[in-house]
Design brief:
Layout: H1 3-9, H2 20-27, E1 42-48, H3 55-63, E2 71-77, H4 81-89, E3 95-99, H5 100-108, E4 113-121, E5 131-135, E6 151-154, H6 160-170, E7 180-183, H7 189-195, E8 200-204, H8 207-215, E9 218-221, H9 223-227, E10 232-239, H10 240-245, H11 247-266, H12 268-272, E11 286-287, H13 293-305, H14 315-318, E12 327-333, E13 338-342, E14 345-346, E15 349-350, E16 353-361, E17 369-372, E18 375-378, E19 385-393, E20 396-401, E21 409-414
Parallel strand pairs: 1-2, 1-3, 6-7, 6-8, 12-16, 15-21
Antiparallel strand pairs: 3-10, 4-10, 4-11, 5-8, 5-9, 12-13, 13-14, 16-19, 17-18, 17-20, 20-21
Length: about 425
């Protein structure tokens, strides 16, 4: 059986949808990049999706992070990660941006994809997550349990939406046999919900904010945060033989993406500037160049539990040792509280290594100031927002406090 045949049997073959026009409307052409050099550029054909998660790639192109490494990106937009895996299995594309579920399915079905860069995670709650289950504002569906007997739209069957939503629904004792999923392209989901074709949709940004502000839809469930803080969502993969034939190019892409992800974290205004003015107030993903392998192992188990795969993949083969492992730490400051957490629990001690910090500043009078060996980062004293960055922590003591109210403070040690 051919590789494409195997992936079709796994339910990965869906009709390709022409979503390129939508993405171009959001971010503009992505193939070009500013550079004054006349050296010959190595072209990477990249298969992407029409969602906001991929903006760091476009920002990296604009900032010249790829060009300075001699890389030109030529992008093709697909409807789902399943479609991208199918295309790559037929050597239509060098690197693909896909969800972790399609990556896990591909690897378990003998399609030798490997990670070339991390990308994005979900957030921490229904209040800050950027990809949620939504229903009409007038819907009688009020709790996850109410989804029994209902139809949910995802962009692919057995894809990220279905597996993560089913895993989340299992936490609410929902009868999985009573929930139906159908495949509808992201750009068409709002119309399907408004017309009553489906009862709920899996909506990432910018479609989630459009559904809320234009249609009056409401969020019912944040699937990723239900499973864990900063649940892994997307990644960039290539076929193993492409990486073996192009090791320098693969590394160049990895390094350019790491720089792009870091820039997007530190400059959310640059991300928003890529959107039309009417849709700039969207929730942004948590971008990180680090991968939490613990969560990937659990996600693979969910994929098996809910029928996307029959055997668990080799996560070590999917995510090579060259891809940095790390955890996401959650900081928070309000008018009278300050905290730093890992997996939702107070942070006391860590081992030296790489970490991504995501700090939510909810107060216009306090700020969050993090200091330690080689580290000095803070949010604004008169503004609210999110500070996000990835760094290496050395051994020592780290403190966090508010400059306006030093009694708001805490600390953790790195050994």
């Amino acid at each position: 059986m051919t590789r494409s045949g195997m992936i079709r049997r796994a339910g990965l073959a869906l009709a390709l949808v022409a979503a390129a026009a939508l993405l171009l409307a959001l971010v503009g052409p992505a193939a070009g990049s500013p550079t004054k050099t006349h050296r010959k550029m190595a072209v990477i054909n990249l298969d992407g999706l029409p969602i906001a998660n991929g903006f760091p790639l476009d920002i990296g192109i604009q900032q010249g992070f790829f060009a300075k490494r001699g890389i030109e990106i030529k992008k093709t937009v697909f409807q789902s990660g399943n479609d991208i895996v199918l295309a790559m299995a037929n050597h239509n594309g060098d690197i693909g941006y896909i969800g972790w579920v399609p990556a896990i399915i591909a690897r378990s079905q003998g399609i030798p994809v490997v990670t070339v860069s991390a990308s994005d995670n979900e957030a921490t709650s229904i209040d800050d997550n950027w990809q949620n289950v939504m229903v009409k504002g007038s819907s009688s569906i009020r709790t996850p349990k109410d989804l029994e007997g209902k139809t949910i739209a995802g962009n692919a069957l057995k894809g990220v939406c279905e597996i993560v939503i089913r895993a989340a629904l299992s936490k609410f004792n929902v009868n999985q046999d009573a929930v139906k999923f159908v495949a509808i392209p992201f750009p068409a989901m709002r119309a399907a919900l408004n017309s009553g074709q489906v009862d709920a949709i899996c909506a990432p940004e910018p479609f989630m904010t459009q559904a809320m502000t234009i249609d009056g839809a409401r969020i019912l469930l944040a699937p990723g945060p239900t499973l864990g803080k900063y649940w892994p969502n997307g990644t960039y993969v290539a076929l193993q033989d492409w990486v073996q034939k192009n090791p320098a190019l693969a590394k160049g892409f990895h390094d350019a993406m790491a720089e792009s992800l870091q820039y997007a974290q530190a400059h959310p205004e640059a991300v928003r500037a890529m959107l039309p003015a009417a849709t700039r107030n969207i929730r942004l993903p948590v971008w990180s160049s680090l991968i939490d392998r613990r969560q990937l192992v659990q996600l693979a188990k969910y994929a098996k539990q809910f029928g996307a795969i029959s055997t668990l993949p080799n996560i070590a083969a999917l995510v090579p040792a060259a891809i940095s492992t790390g955890l996401v730490l959650q900081g928070d400051v309000g008018r009278s509280t300050i905290s730093m957490k890992l997996d939702g629990k107070p942070l006391k001690a860590l081992i030296a290594g790489d970490y991504t910090f995501v700090v939510s500043d909810r107060s216009a009078t306090q700020n969050f100031h993090l200091k330690g060996p080689g580290l000095n980062k803070s949010t604004g004293k008169r503004q609210v927002g999110r500070l996000s960055f990835t760094t290496k922590l050395a051994k020592g003591r780290y403190t966090y406090s508010s400059d306006a109210k030093p009694s708001l403070r805490g600390s953790f040690t790195v050994g």
